[in-house]
Structure formats: C-alpha cells, structure tokens
Specification:
The complex is a heterodimer. Chain A is 49% helix and 19% strand. By secondary structure, chain A is of the alpha/beta class. Chain A has an eight-stranded mixed β-barrel, surrounded by five helices. Chain A has a five-stranded antiparallel beta sheet with strand order 6-5-9-8-7, sandwiched between helices. A five-stranded mixed beta sheet of chain A has the order 11-12-10-15-16, sandwiched between helices. In chain A, strand 22, helix 23 (681-686) and strand 23 form a beta-alpha-beta unit. The N and C termini of chain A lie far apart (82 Å). Chain B folds into two domains: 2-72 and 170-258, 60s Ribosomal Protein L30, Chain: A (2-Layer Sandwich); 75-168, Elongation Factor Tu (Ef-tu), domain 3 (Beta Barrel), CATH 2.40.30. The radius of gyration of chain B is 18 Å and the shape is globular. Chain B is an alpha+beta fold. The chains are: A alpha/beta, B alpha+beta. Chains A and B meet through helix 1 and helix 2 of A and helix 1 and strand 7 of B.
C-alpha cells in the first residue's frame, strides 16, 4: 500500500482511549479512587451521561445521578445484557453492561441519552476498560493483603509467599498488556501483534500451544488461523481442515465465555481425534470479537496430565482474548479508513492517490524493461455542471456512478480506472500496442458514454471528451503523463472533438506560452497597462453621441496596443479578468464623469461596459460596482452593463440575481450579441433587460440578405414593443446605417462612425458635436425622416 | 448556573464535579469571569462577598424547560488530518509530521508568526483546531507552540488517533453560529415564548468580530429573543452541559433561554 497523509502511523481511537484509561486508573492508590476514576473516564470516552460500577447488587460508584440518588434497584435489575437503565431526564437512552471480573461478578454499566446504539468499537473499548479495572483492583487488593500479612506470624509465611508470587504474575500480565497495546498503537502489522499475543498467552499460562482462530468469511464452518504458537505446519494444516462450528470453540463463541475441557478425546471436543494424537489433555478457549461480533476464539492447549485451568488462568486468557479483539477491530477500522483513502466513495473506482501509485509502479516496470509501455486516458463529461444544476446533485452522482461502470466495462482487467474528482475520470492502459491502440480504447469509452443514461424517468444523452498520453522512454513521471493527457483533453474540448485526441509535445509549448501570457497579464495589471478605449454610440435621430462603450486595450510596453481577442480568453480563465475589468471600469467611470462635468454636450453621456461570464459570477460584483460608482461620483443611471446571451443562459440563477442587483443600484442592462444565442422571448421577460444590441453579423449583411434584414426588423419591432432600446453594432457603411435608421433602430455603433478611441481622441469628437456630425449631414442630404 | 474563575484550575474537572452532584437530569450552563484580557485575576460575586479562585453556583427551578444552545462558528480549512501523536493538551505530530509544521503549512502562516511565539499566539487565537467527538465537533484553542520540538499546546486535550481540522473564522461564520446557538436554545423551549436570554460569549469571538461586529451580534441575539430581555458576559471559557459528562467549551457562545 502506498503511504497516504493522515493514515500512516498513530493508534486508533479505541486504543488511545484505553491507554489513557490504563494510565489514569493504574496510578490510583486505592481501589475506591480507581473505581471513581474509571467510572468517570468510561462515561467521558463514549460521551455517555451515566456510568456505574455495580457489585453484588450494590452500586459501588456512579456518575450522572444527583448526589445520593443512584437507584440501586434500577441498576442491579439491569442484569448482564444490554438495555435496562435509562438516563434520567432523557426521552430515549441506550445502556450497556460489561463484566469487570469473572470471579467477583462486578459490572460496569454505561447509559447514554439518545437513540444511537453503542457501536462495536465502543462496546469493545468498555469491555477492555472493565477488564483493565478488574486487574488493577485485584492488584491493589493484593498489595493491601500483603501489607497486612507481612505483620503476621511466621505460620503465614508460606501463604504470604504464594500471594507474592501471584502478585508478580499479575504484574507480568500488566506488562504483557502494555506491550501489546504499544504494538497496536504503533500500528505494527496485525500478524506481529497477534504473534505477540500468542507468546504472551503462552508465557502467562505456562503453556506451549496457542492458536487464534477466526471464522473464514469465504468458507463458512471453517476457521482461519491468523496467529499461533507451537504448532507444526502439518498440524496447522490439519487444524485448518477441522470444522469450526461445533466443538469447544463453537461453545465458547455461542455462549460468549471461557470454556474449559479436561480429558480431551470425547467425540464433541475432538471429532477428528487430532487433539488426542497431539497428546493434548486439556483445552481452554475464550471468545474473540471484531467490531463487537464474536468471530473466533483464542485457544490454549496443554499436554500436561492433570493440568487444571483455574480462575486466574481464565482471567488471563480473557485479557489476552480481549486484546486479540482490540487488535482485529483496530486493524479493520484502519483498513476501512485506508480503503476510503484509496478508493472513490461514489464510484468505487481508484482515487487519484491509488491511480498515481499504480502508474508509478507501471513506470518503474517500464524503467526495467523499456519494451513495456503505459498510456493514460483522461476524460470528462461535457456540460456535467448543467446536470448537477438542473437535476440536482443526487442525480449527478447517479450519472457519475453509471459513467464509472461503463468505463470499467469497456477496459481490460489489467487496466485501472479512476475518478480523479468531479466528473474527471482517468484510465491507465497497461502496455497498449501503440498510441493508435490507446486512442481506440479511449474512443470506445466515449462511444459507451453516448448510450443514454436512465435517471429517474429521464433518458440523459451525454457526451465525454478524452485526451490520451503515451509514455515514451523513462522521461515522464506518472504526474507528467496525467498532465499530458489532461492537456490533450483540453485541446479535444476546445475543438469540440467527438473522439479522443492524443497528446503531442506542441500542446505543452502552447501551455507554456499561455503561462507566459498569464504572468505578463499580471505584470500588466500591476503596471496599469490595461486602459479603457471608447467607441461612441450615435442616436440615429439626432446624430449626437449619446454614449460610449468602454473597451479594454492592453497598452503593452513592447508589443504596443494588444487587441482583446489576444488575451481576454486567458484573462477570463485565470480570473484576472476581474481585477482588469475593475481597473478599466474605474478608469472609464472617472473619465465619463470628467467629460460630463467639462463638456456640455456630454452632460448626460452614458457609459456601456461589458460583463463577462467570470465577472458575472464574481460574488463581489455588486459591492465593487457600488463602491466604484460611489467613489467616482457617477450616477448609476448613466451606466449600462452589457452581457451576452450565452453568459446569461449558462448561469441563469446567479445571473438573474446579479442583474437584479445591478438594476437595484439604478444601472441598466443590455443584451449583447442579440440574435446569436437562444434569443428566447422567455428570458426577455425573465431578466430585467433595458437594451437589445443587435449582433454585428446581422448588421453587416443587412444590405445583402433579405433574411437578415427581416431578422433585424423583427428585433427592432420586438424591442419597441417591449419598450427596450435597440442598438445596432458593427455598422461599417453609410448604407447599413441608413437602413437601420429606416427600420426604427434607436442607436448605432461601428467603424462607420468611429473606431474605439483613446480618451483624448474621443474628447475631440465630443467637442465638435455642437455642429451636426457627418451622419446627420448625410442623413439630411438623403432626406431621411427626422 | 456556574460562574467561575477560569484562571485557576481545570475547568473541565469543575464541570464534572458539578455534574456529579447535580446528575444527568440537570443541564449546566455558565462561564468563567474575565479581567479585560489582563489574565491576572478575576472576581466572582456571592451575596455581599467578592471572591477569587472560586465558583458561584445558582440553581434555577422552572416548570418550563431550560433551553441551552452552544455554537462556536469556526469553519474548517482544507482536509482533516490524523492526530498521530498527542498527550493530554500537547499535540506532537499530525499525519506523522511535526504538528507545528503542519499547522503553519496548512494555514499558510506567514512571518513573523512563524518564528515569534507572541505573534504565533496572536495568530492562533483566531485559528483553533477542531476535533471530532461522537456528539459533534469541538474546538481546541491553540495557546502556544514549542518552536524547538515543533509541538502545539492546546487549552484542552486532543486525543491521539482522532481526526483534527484546522479552523478559521470571520464575521460571517461567527454570526451564523450566533443564530444557530439562539435557534438551538429556542428549540428546547418548544412552543413557549422566551422570557429572556442569558449569553456567555467567548472573549475570543469578540476579537474576531470587533466593536462593529459585536453590536451586530447583540442585535441578532435580541431579534431572536423576540423582544425578551438579553443579558450576558464575555467569558474566558464557557460551560454548557446538556449531553455526556463534559461541558467545558472554548471559543464558544452559550445561550440560555428561559421560558
């Protein structure tokens, strides 16, 4: 397994809680304080309200009841199974009872408000805490007894000695326990932990044969043997073939207690006769659990004649069995965490970490044998966001699950499919024949994705895009391969390709160029190289300049004036469009305010600015606009925000909200490039629109194509009937302008009137508007209606 | 209701002590007195007595339920990490790397807080650790860092083997928690209108909000109380026990609604 941040090392939660508990309880100086501490720690560990120690029908210590009000009868009636005691004041609660010590009948009872049952791990922890408390109490009692005995007569000396040796044995038990807990919390391999437990068990019971047996999930009725001591390979084999359901183990598991059997050889205990053959005389078997369920046994076998396993042996075996349970549960919890860390929850495919790991393995193989190759397919779904937005995330997740299944069904067993995040999938092809074979494999996946996907009552028709990268030589790391495939994917998307596109090094060069552009954009922003240019908007009726559209230009110190087409895409993708737009907006508002103060004809000059998709999504848009307008002192009523149909349709909800916000400030909204998108009447009523801008493509063919003439006519009429202003852009000839004016269009804009100009140039135009402009002059000559 | 001296002793033990007397049926609420962030000594009043190093308790009897809400308003930054080594209040490693290094890296801490203990503490006041408990998430105020062994010192224990988050807060998140704490407190009242609110609000939250934000917070609490009077304290630690046996909190707003 590859290492993964957050998973390597560190003990599990239960182990840590137990270690803390042992630390505190074992430092107690007398039994009463050990019990009081244990009660409190047990409740705190599982966030319970009530904990109590009950022995012989008496509450020894409790927490959670008002002082002096622990209800003896209630607690003692809890018996030895779960349930029974409720938390005072709580509507529902759950409780659990675990035995402290096999011999004295003491019990730890814990109750918690709420309907959540105690989990397997919590139950295991409480059981281990109770056992640990039991050991400590015995040890403390022994110390006290020893102290008394020491003062008594010599007659007692022999007994005294016996007690001291028992005391030492208990000390040894605690030593083994802390050693095992240390191994578990250091995350040593499970096998090693179980082996240590086997050794500890053998040492503590003074025996040689130990086996840990757990039910084989693949072969019910038989056992796995994850740990053993003193058993030869031949015997082990025979033991593996022995049925696990009946016999002593079955009894220990069914009754969930330690079972002891002397004089082995009876049919039930030794159906195969094997134990007898091994010379085994006596067996002691304790149940072990995983996540709360009894799943196996810890068995110690003795060859000694007359061997009698007493209470102390039982207690030791139980302590060791509890630790097997702890180790198994801990390992399982960790394995689940690791699975989470390497597999995608939703689709069950590998995640990025595992995919990279597999890829690196494959690359390592390739370095040893250059004939081996590996290819990476990177694919995503087109317009997946729309599915999530329109159908909801639950449906989106369903789609992703289906996509995962289809990808898996399309590839070979040796290949690895992964979900890298969102709707991004990747496939690693082991040793494809050549790049054509890899591309073909990618196309098969794309083909499979085109099959309709049933979601609820709907059939969704999806398409994907894919890029493919093939390793060449030992030069690429796995990350490089993924990145190359991703580059090819972006190219495929940009080109709208229906089939996959293989990576070529040129793509990398393109990206480098883009990166350079990106950094020079940032530099340009710092050096204030982005300036507003202004194109006038002419009122067809008066021929006066009624407004200006502010357009961004990059005045590059080396390349001169850079056109927006050469940098806006990158600015848009990197989000730099937001600060660039803001700086241009600030400059333009200042300029327009300045003009309207100084030039009479510009007193009511309007400012149009474009709003791109990224800008429209910027959550701070409204705040920024409001604060710039306030700072500059330009009334919002003089500003028109232009937004294209495409942007509007893409993000309908958030766009409506933004547009309404801008309207609330007092600004107006224009639809840019009207006629190129959906041009749906529905959204004209849905969005708070004031102006329609007729796209230049129609304007330019108005004189040649009847169709476009009709279309513009329709738009103008539509605008008039909805009381919207119509603006025609891209007017290049007088004839075009004339026809638009004839149709009743309100305002015109285009090279025929003026190209976008720097502020000083535009100011000259503003100053001559007292005289009729060229347009008005010509119109008069042509005798157009006023 | 417990009004205590947060500068003396283990406040979690104090809450547990009170719990051992009152039992599960009685919710506990309260806070630790402050001294305008001088951190020297605080006072508790009992009748005509002015006390230090003490706790004053009041029992509130009511036929109506007592509504208690406790929320912190910190928001996690990035993915959780596993606490791979800790003892009590000290965190040694996170994801097997020195805890301080991971903390600095994940939160993008800049100089001088990377090397100056005082600056670090100033930064850490608004960037606590979150840990997961069965009953939800708890916040651990990071008090200081050991720049030699690269460990972090927290105000309450951070269990090894659990998950931890790095957290941060801003006006919005702190105020959202205000709303949530009020809503929690009101929920326990059922349909009964509140007669009044008593708030125990961590001094650290005041640091995040500033004077302006504090006014907003008080306005919000008042609007939630539906006109009923609101009183409260800025505290050095808050007490709210409604579940489990522990109820001492850091960086939290506790609201008691009485009906």
């Amino acid at each position: 397994m590859p290492s993964h941040e957050g998973l390597a090392g560190g003990g599990g939660w239960a182990t840590q809680q137990l270690a803390e508990f042992n630390g505190v309880v074992s430092r107690a100086l007398d039994g009463a304080s050990a019990i009081a501490q244990a009660v409190e720690l047990a409740a705190a560990a599982v966030d319970a309200e009530i904990a109590a120690i009950v022995r012989g029908g008496e509450v020894i210590s409790s927490v959670g009841f008002a002082e002096g009000r622990a209800p003896d009868s209630l607690l003692t009636s809890a018996g030895s199974s779960r349930g029974g005691v409720s938390v005072p004041g709580a509507l529902t609660s759950r409780s659990i009872v675990v035995a402290i010590d096999e011999s004295d009948g003491g019990q730890l009872l814990v109750a918690r408000a709420g309907a959540d049952d105690f989990t397997g791990e919590e139950a295991l922890l409480l059981r281990a805490m109770a056992r640990s408390l039991g050991l400590t109490l015995r040890l403390l009692a022994m110390v006290a007894t020893e102290r008394k005995l020491r003062q008594r007569s010599e007659r007692q000396a022999k007994r005294n000695k016996h007690l001291v040796s028992e005391l030492r044995e208990r000390q040894r038990l605690l030593e083994w326990i802390s050693r095992i807990e240390r191994l578990i919390s250091l995350r040593q391999p499970l096998q090693e932990v179980l082996q240590t437990i086997c050794k500890g068990t053998a040492d503590l019971l003074g025996e040689e044969l130990v086996a840990i047996r757990t039910s084989d999930p693949l072969n019910p009725g038989y056992a796995l043997i994850p740990g053993h001591l003193g058993i030869s390979p031949v015997q082990l084999n025979a033991l593996l073939r022995m049925p696990f359901s009946g016999g002593l183990s079955g009894e220990a598991m069914a009754e969930d207690r330690v079972v002891i059997r002397g004089r082995v050889g009876g049919q039930s205990a030794d159906p195969t006769g094997m134990l007898g053959d091994l010379g085994i005389t006596t067996l002691i078997v304790g149940p072990i659990r995983e996540s709360g369920l009894v799943i196996g046994t810890l068995t110690v076998a003795s060859r000694r004649r007359g061997r009698h396993f007493g209470t102390v042996d039982q207690e030791k075996l139980m302590a060791m069995a509890e630790h097997v349970s702890l180790a198994l549960t801990d390992a399982r919890t960790m394995a689940e965490l690791e699975h989470k860390a390497f597999y995608d929850d939703l689709t069950g495919l590998a995640n990025r970490a595992l995919f990279l790991d597999r890829l690196e393995h494959s690359r390592a193989r390739q370095r040893r044998d250059p004939a081996v190759s590996v290819a990476v397919i990177f694919l995503d779904l087109n317009r997946f966001k729309d599915i999530n937005d329109s159908l909801g995330h639950a449906e989106g997740d369903l789609v992703l699950t289906v996509v995962g299944e289809r990808v898996t069904a399309t590839i070979r067993n040796v290949d690895t499919a992964a979900r890298l995040g969102g709707d991004e999938f990747a496939v690693m092809l082991e040793d494809p024949a050549d790049s054509l074979a890899a591309v073909a494999a990618a196309n098969r996946i794309l083909e499979a994705l085109r099959e309709p996907i049933h979601v609820g009552a709907r059939d969704l028709h999806l398409t994907g895009s894919a890029g493919v990268a093939l390793s060449s030589g030992a030069a690429h790391s796995g990350e490089d391969l993924i990145r190359n495939a991703d580059l090819a994917l972006h190219r495929a998307k940009a080109e709208g390709s229906r089939s996959s596109i293989p990576y070529v090094p040129q793509m990398h060069a393109d990206v480098l160029r883009r990166l350079e552009l990106e950094s020079s954009l940032s530099r340009g922003l710092e050096n204030e190289e982005f300036r507003a240019f202004y194109q006038p908007l002419i009122d067809f009726r008066t021929g006066l300049i009624v407004g200006v559209e502010a357009l961004v230009r990059w005045v590059h110190p080396v390349h001169g004036v850079v056109q927006p087409a050469d940098f806006l895409d990158v600015a848009e993708e990197t989000g730099l469009i937001i600060p660039i737009g803001e700086s241009v907006f600030r400059e333009a508002t200042r300029q327009v305010r300045d003009w309207s103060e100084r030039i009479e004809a510009a007193a009511r000059l309007e400012l149009s600015v474009n709003l791109s998709g990224t800008q429209a999504q910027n959550p701070r848009l409204l705040d920024n606009v409001a604060s710039v307008l306030a700072e500059v002192g330009l009334p919002a009523g003089r500003v028109v925000f232009e937004i294209t149909e495409t942007v509007l349709m893409h993000d309908r909800l958030s766009a409506t909200e933004k547009l309404e916000g801008l309207k609330a400030l007092g600004a107006r909204i224009a639809i840019d490039d009207f006629g190129t998108g959906y041009s749906s009447l529905a959204y004209l009523s849905q969005f708070p629109i004031d102006v329609l801008k007729i796209d230049r493509s129609f304007v330019q063919s108005i004189t040649d194509r009847q169709q476009d003439f009709d279309l513009i006519k329709a738009i103008v009429i539509l605008a008039a009937s909805l009381r919207l202003k119509s603006v025609a852009e891209g007017i290049e000839t007088m004839q075009q302008g004339q026809m638009l004016a004839d149709l009743g269009c309100d305002v015109g804009q285009g090279f025929y009137f003026s190209r976008p100009l720097a502020a000083t140039e535009l100011e000259k135009l503003l100053r001559v508007t007292h005289a009729p402009t060229e347009w008005v002059t010509k119109r008069d000559v042509l005798q157009l209606p006023a | 209701m417990l009004l205590s001296d947060g500068l003396s002793g283990d406040q979690q033990q104090l809450v547990r002590g009170a719990y051992s007397v009152a039992g599960a049926e009685v919710p506990l609420v309260g806070g630790c007195a402050g001294d305008d962030l001088k951190m020297r000594r605080t006072h508790q009043f009992h009748g005509r007595q002015v006390l230090e190093d003490s706790v004053v308790a009041a029992a509130i009897a009511s036929n109506a339920p007592l509504g208690i809400g406790a929320r912190h308003g910190w928001i996690p930054v990035g993915d959780p990490v596993l606490v791979t080594s800790s003892a009590g209040n000290r965190v040694f490693t996170l994801a097997d790397r020195p805890a301080l290094d991971v903390y600095l890296e994940r939160l993008g801490v800049e100089e001088p807080a990377r090397s100056s203990p005082a600056e670090f503490t100033r930064f850490a006041i608004t960037h606590p650790l979150g840990i997961r408990r069965r009953t939800g998430e708890e916040v651990r105020f990071v008090g200081e860092a050991n720049f030699v062994d690269r460990s972090l010192g927290c105000i309450a224990n951070v269990p090894q083997g659990g998950l931890a988050w790095f957290m941060t807060g801003d006006d919005d998140s702190v105020l959202l928690a205000t709303d949530a704490a009020c809503a929690d407190a009101l929920r326990s009242l059922g349909d009964l209108p509140p007669l009044g609110f008593i708030a125990f609000d961590c001094i650290g939250r005041r640091g995040v909000l500033g004077d302006q934000g504090v006014r907003k917070e008080i306005d919000r609490i008042s609007s939630r109380s539906g006109g009923a009077p609101v009183a409260g304290f800025y505290t050095y630690g808050e007490i709210a026990r409604t579940a489990g046996i522990s109820g001492f909190h850091n960086q939290t707003l506790v609201i008691l609604a009485i009906a």
